[in-house]
Design a protein that fits this description.
The protein has three helices and three strands. It has one domain: GMP Synthetase, Chain A, domain 3, CATH 3.30.300. It is of the alpha+beta class.
Amino acid sequence: MRLHQELPYQSTVETDVWNELKDGSIRIEQTIYVERESQRKIVLGRGGQTIKAIGADARREIADMIEAPVHLFLFVKVRERWGEDPERYREMGLRFPED
């Protein structure tokens, strides 16, 4: 929602960590993968403002869904041509599109 039409369509999000802490809160670490550095810059925004806003919105939404405080850490990384890697699709539980 934050990126509107600027969202790189070749992007994916992977959850790296989902741990329940002793105080009942949840620590979540996720990586947003894009295919090019220019896309990474779009997701990060000037001075990191876009990813910060995305994280704040997502944190509130997740906390409402699971009814627990959430500590959300987002990372944006470039993984060139990830969309052409059948293994990435399998890891997400998807079938690789055949030509």
